[in-house]
Amino acid sequence: MFQYDQFTLPNGLRVIAQPMPAFRSVAVGVWLHVGSADETDQTNGYAHFIEHLLFKGTQTRSAQTLAQQMDAIGGQVNAFTAKECTCFHAKIMPEHLEKALDLLSDLVLNPKLDPQDIEREKGVVLEEIAMVEDTPEDVVADLAALADFGQTALARPILGPSDNIKNASREALLAYRQRLYTPKNAVIAVAGRYDRAELERLCQHFFGSWQGGTPSARSAYMPVEKRFLYREKTIEQAHLCFGFDGVSMGDLRSYPMAVLNTYLGGGMSSRLFQTVREKLGLAYSVYSYPSNYEQCGVLTLYAGTSVANLPLVAEAIAKEIHDVCQEGASEQMLCKAKEQLRGSYILGQESTNARMMALGRALLTHQPVRSMDQVLALIDAVTVDDVNHVMRLAFDSPMSVALVSPENTIHPEQLEAIVRG
User: Fold this and answer.
1) pTM
2) Residue 1: its pLDDT value, please?
3) What is the pLDDT of residue 243?
4) 3-state SS string over the chain?
5) 245 with 395: CB under 8 angstroms?
6) Which residue from 296, 294, 316 is spatially nearest to 365, judged by alpha carbons?
7) pLDDT per residue over 122-170, tens digit each?
8) Residue 313's Cα: distance from chain center in Å?
9) I want to staple 245 with a disulfide (CB 3.0 to 4.6 A). Which of 249, 329, 380, 397 is the partner?
């Protein structure tokens, strides 16, 4: 039976933990319901920038001291910002859980945000933005989000535009952080070897003084008309994304959607890989992936190819979509895709860090907290009819097209015409 501990501190901070006594490590994460979805055009990039700045030092520890103290206990500490959340996390030996919670609480609750550090870190984040610009696969992913979501919050890139970072003032960053970094907008997740009573004591000790109310709810991601966007860039290849309707992270149809994705473009045996790369030799990289957000989802098909082969790749992808829809799901396809999905899920979850991530994300976004066995049962329960349903949901939906390539290439509307036939 799946066992986990859950409690709420008096200030509203929720804590969830899964005991894994067979492991000789413990992972802990401080999750915040803060991401680029909480930004405006003027503040886009602030969530990620603040994530960087919290590592520059606290009221009592310098950046160097933070690094030295984590290294001294043999731990790993890191953070990430996504569209709908930010997470500061550490993985340590169980005897060092107190020190890890001390460091993480200091990062999140007591950042110094020194003006000189802010100016220096602007250069680091601007270099990160430049690095993305040098990665066409990332550029087309950001363009695809814009094609899928128009001017809504999910369209904004996590890193934000360079001008927002250059012009960010300490006062604006503090106001953003003060509004969203509150205990009622956060979750602590733990997985590994720990003592329940000690964990509760430590969380209260290090996070009990955290104050702040409940931020206003995010605005709804209103449906927008899918678009066809092209960006010219001096690169060697053309990078192409097709976007179709998907499902939200709380929707049980995410499991048949994952099965469909596995079959269509989720691995080396998938139809897209076998046809476009292995059979036709038209692309080195071709795949599909689902993106599940709190209110909606997208199924994306990607290919990187030469400019000359771009129409042929679009035609090949269009034929695979057409054939998959005409054939429908089969028991043979279903069994193969489910087994592949089961294997990748099990291998991906067999660590304290992976379990901590699953627990934190679920509680933060008000999703059911499921054990590995429960998730595997939901995968096993997927039927042919379920896959056919999400196939129609996706491929009968309006389609977005995002293309990043050198000049004088096929226009996105032409690509859409090829795929739609």
Assistant:
1) 0.94
2) 59
3) 95
4) CCCCEEEECCCCCEEEEEECCCCCCEEEEEEECCCHHHCCCCCCCHHHHHHHHHHHEECCCEHHHHHHHHHHCCCEEEEEECCCCEEEEEEECHHHHHHHHHHHHHHHHCECCCHHHHHHHHHHHHHHHHHHHCCHHHHHHHHHHHHHHCCCHHHCCCCCCHHHHHHCCHHHHHHHHHHHCCHHHEEEEEEECCCHHHHHHHHHHHHCCCCCCCCCCCCCCCCCCCCEEEEECCCCCEEEEEEEECCCCCCCCHHHHHHHHHHHHCCCCCHHHHHHHHHCCCCCEEEEEEEECCCCEEEEEEEEECCCCHHHHHHHHHHHHHHHHHHCCCHHHHHHHHHHHHHHHHHHHCCHHHHHHHHHHHHHCCCCCCCHHHHHHHHHCCCHHHHHHHHHHHHCCCCEEEEEECCCCCCHHHHHHHHHC
5) no
6) 294
7) 999 999 999 999 999 999 999 999 999 988 889 999 999 999 999 999 9
8) 27
9) 397
Q: Are 188 and 361 in contact (CB under 8 A)?
A: no
Asked if residue 407 has pLDDT above 90, the reply is no
Least confident range of 22-26, 223-227, 292-296, 395-399 = 223-227
Cβ atoms 405, 232 nearer than 8 A: yes
Helix 331-349 / helix 372-380 crossing angle, nearest 10 deg: 170
The confidence score (pLDDT) of residue 223 equals: 67
pLDDT higher than threshold 90 for residue 410: no
pLDDT more than 70, % of the chain? 98
Amino acid at the residue 396: D
Taking every pair of C-alpha atoms in the chain, what is the biggest distance, in angstroms?
Answer: 66
What's the one-letter identity of residue 365?
T
Q: Which of the residue ranges 74-78, 92-96, 216-220 would you say has the lowest mean pLDDT?
A: 216-220
Complete domains list, the chain, with CATH: 5-207 (3.30.830.10), 228-420 (3.30.830.10)
User: What are 114's two structure tokens?
Assistant: 């020194």
With tokens 């009622």, the residue in question is: 184
pLDDT band at 421 (very low <50, low <70, confident <90, very high): low
Q: What is the model's pLDDT at position 225?
A: 81
Active-site positions read: 51
